[in-house]
Amino acid sequence: MHEWALADAVIEATSSALAGRNPSCLRGVTVTVGELQAIDHEIFSFALRTLLEERPFRTAEYHLETEPARFLCVSCEKEWSFAETRNLDDQTREAIHFLPEAAHAFIRCPFCRSPDYRVQKGRGVSIASLTLDSSGSCA
After folding, report:
1. Distance (Å, whole) CA 112 – CA 132
2. 105: exposed, middle or buried (C-beta count within 10 Å: 0-12, 13-18, 19+)?
3. What is the mean pLDDT of residues 35-64?
């Protein structure tokens, strides 16, 4: 159900971004999904399609892009990716999926083992871009 809530939020954000514009002029939306969200793209896409059925911009194409997670250790100042994080079982990954900030309870710097790091990229869901038809009645 997490994917459904996020899909609904993306559609509401799209609607807000279109304020004052003809919503039927929307042609495409690029959505950036942070790797730490661990979104099931198939479920998320299905949720988007289903929730869009009653919207005036239902014909717009939604493109999903995954933003890889990057971490920066405060202690040793080294940067690493989520793939370089060690010893995360499926249950831990699931906890991070529902609450990305929980990553701090489970992940340590692979270089110095410090729990003190910043998530530089790869969390959250955002609209990266909207594409509008600029011809005719959409101009």
Report:
1. 48
2. exposed
3. 93
What is the Cα–Cα distance from 128 to 22, expressed in whole angstroms?
A: 20
What is the pLDDT, as a whole number, of residue 52?
Answer: 95
Instruction: Give the model confidence (pLDDT) of 105-116 as tens digits.
Output: 889 999 999 999
Can you give the pTM of this predicted structure? 0.81
Domain residues of the chain, as ranges?
Answer: 2-68+122-138, 70-121
Residue 115: C-alpha distances to residues 57, 67, 88, 107 (Å) = 44, 22, 14, 7
2-68+122-138: CATH number? 3.30.2320.50
